[in-house]
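Reopening closed ticket. The problem is back. First fold of the pair:
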Amino acid sequence: MILRIFFAVGNISFMGENAVQYRVESLKDLAIIINHFNKYPLITKKQAYYTLFISAYSLIKNKSHLTNKGILELVALKAVLNRGLSKDLGVAFPDIVPALRPEVLLSKVVDPF
């Protein structure tokens, strides 16, 4: 719930006894969170996934995902994010080549605050 309060966007759903889901669905609200992570970048290897996520966000924001080329790019990004492609997406896009995960050089934390 702290994330919902901090960002002032999104919704909280309780997913059972020990799980909570924080979901942001609009591009406008998602931009608030993206601005935060652009200002305070991740300092772990998760930065690579953030970079891929930003690529997907940009495709959708610019409506490029509505073209054949754009949807293929989006599916290629999905193939390397989280759990990869679902069975249905794998069947629908059997020849998709997953996007390359960017290499992230880890930097030392200068100031933890």
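Second fold of the pair, where the issue appears:
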Amino acid sequence: MDFLAYKEENSRLLREDWQEKRTRFRAMPEIINLNHSNACNLRCITCWHHTGVPIMSLELKEVVKVIHQLFPAARKVVLTAAGEPLINQFDEITTLAAHYQTRIDMFTSCLNMTEDRFRRTRELFDILHVSMDCPEKEGYERVRVRSSYEKVVDNLRMMKRVMDEEGKPFGYHCQAALLKSTVRHLPGFVKFVHDLGFDVLHVQRLYKTHAGLDGEDILTDMPREELDAIMEEARQEATRLNQTLVLHEIGYPNVWSDPPPAGEEPKLMQFKEDGVCWFVGQSIGINHVGEVFPCCYPTDIYLGNVLEQPIREIWNSRAMRRLRRQFHTQKLNPFCQACFLVNENPDENRNFDFYKRRARMRVFNIRKSLSMRLSQVLRS
């Protein structure tokens, strides 16, 4: 089967479905957020997954079943925002992605990257995101608990060597959540990522997901004059090095390289341009208990469960059709109204309500655990 031709036709139908204001789509999603496991070998202080959230994963056979339903039409799979993809069935998933010619967008600490893995999968990547919040050992290991600064930097140097030898057929981004205790390193961070061959240093706002982050928000917990000075120095360094520095999530102007870095493929639908968020128009999110949401995290908009229903049925469920109708009519639900992908306001406190998400995730985990226990009792 010519999967590339099949994907191209699916993408055409998807955009036609949207332009014709359909609520039941003929096309399948072209981007899959596969958060099939929340297992991670780090305990980063910026992440709430280790603060009482149990580790759960879909079984490999369940992941494979999902892949066979979605990858033929999907142009890209995003692995996995809830855990570390390199320790969660990475080799099995990438083998199937290669078979279906589905690209990979991945967030990783790179602690578990190897040269063999990188050489084998590098041509599958659309964008490879490396999460690394500080370029200095002390600050890095304080944030990235259980990681090894030396091993990660060695892996990044190895990857640069391979890319220098064989080319870089993907976007290469460094993601950094800035803390008050690490933000002073940002100008040096710009040079650090430039020397390691990154296309982009993408600075993200720190969200206070738990009490351990009190006092660390650069936008509320430090003098604006001090923050402005650091940002200006970082922007000047990025300009000097022709390095893209993305700062808009914290309210500062971006610096773009010349030529600018390549965009994502497929191009993400935007609310201002297309009247829809890409999470509604072209993607679907599956979490570690099989729950399906339009977003990559649980929200108030639950669509179904891949362990109980065919995915095409979920993709055109009553909840998803209602959500599409809201965007067609521009009468959005409160969650979407508050999301900065729609309102583009990084200072809106309701954006990405992680506390509500955390509560919902715990409910799902408890329900899944009780279901598993009941199944064990019935089998015994």
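Update: turned out to be a display glitch only; the data is intact. The radius of gyration is 21 Å. The chain has a mean pLDDT of 90. Please close again.
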